[in-house]
């Protein structure tokens, strides 16, 4: 199983979305009296009003089963959802378990797996706020235990440092391309989802803890443009990457912002050596290094970048 968590302010908007008739929703579990959005919304809001200092009391948990699990019965779904709610500490909280049909409007193709949504109130019935400390990590651990208990397909945990999910538009284009390829409407399969491919290139370029100049050169060689925001005093405020016509801020990729390149990937940064590289990269120049040159004296030959501009 895979799990996602979001936290928001509006119960009405979430219930209106999850219980829209087009989605063929079914409430299969929970502890609330209402069964439509107009009943559930005030029920949850009245409880949350006990603690107005909590600005985001609306918890939304999604559980997706693996395609290999087939059609999971309602009883199993409800038991798993309840185990998640209780395991995360929402023992005395309102919650509702909603099942969606695989043919879910808003998507361009039917889901190939079952999935359920859980709406929970962060405010318990006694007015206390349920702690969300390390919630995603605890959620993943609970799912791993439930996979074993119910003999479900094991899916690797999504730890906090794992890759961000590709945007819906990227997935849609990739799947449409695959359908066209399989139908013979295009000669070649679609290019892999851009963010995944770019992430692989960044991982490869930083694997041996290179200098920042070498890191930029390696990415340019693979067709990635690297741009950075540099202040007048030489401070680097951010870094971004452009690949296959799409630009990604470093903060939107796994361990790829400038601070994390240094702290977690151990890329070596020396301003006197690497700032000229970044400034030239900002101008679209391509860096070429002499592998036999000492690290402190890296020559750069300049030529207009063949990689994509931002």
Give, in spatial order, the strands making up the sheet with the most strands: 1-3-5-4-2
> What's the SSE pattern?
EHEHEHEEHHHHEEEHH
Shape: globular
**What's the CATH architecture of the largest domain?**
2-Layer Sandwich
The CATH class label of the largest domain is: Alpha Beta
Q: Strand share of the residues?
A: 15-25%
- From the helix content, strand content and strand pairing, which structural class follows? alpha+beta
Gyration radius, rounded:
24 Å
**Helix fraction?**
25-40%
- How confident is the prediction overall: mean pLDDT? 84
Q: Are there runs of 5+ residues with pLDDT below 50, and where?
A: 158-163, 290-310
Distance between the termini: 37 Å
Number of domains: 2
Number of helices: 9
CATH topology of the largest domain: BirA Bifunctional Protein, domain 2
The main β sheet shows up as: 5 strands, antiparallel
Number of strands: 8
In short:
This protein has 9 helices and 8 strands. The C terminus is likely disordered.
What can you tell me about this protein's structure?
With 310 residues, the protein is of the alpha+beta class. The protein is 34% helix and 16% strand. It has helices at 11-18, 37-48, 74-87, 135-149, 168-182, 194-205, 212-221, 258-263, 271-282; strands spanning 2-8, 26-30, 58-64, 95-99, 115-121, 225-230, 236-243, 246-249. A five-stranded antiparallel β-sheet has the order 1-3-5-4-2, with helices on both faces. Helix 1 runs antiparallel to helix 2 (37-48) and helix 3 (74-87) packs antiparallel against helix 4 (135-149). The two termini are 37 Å apart.
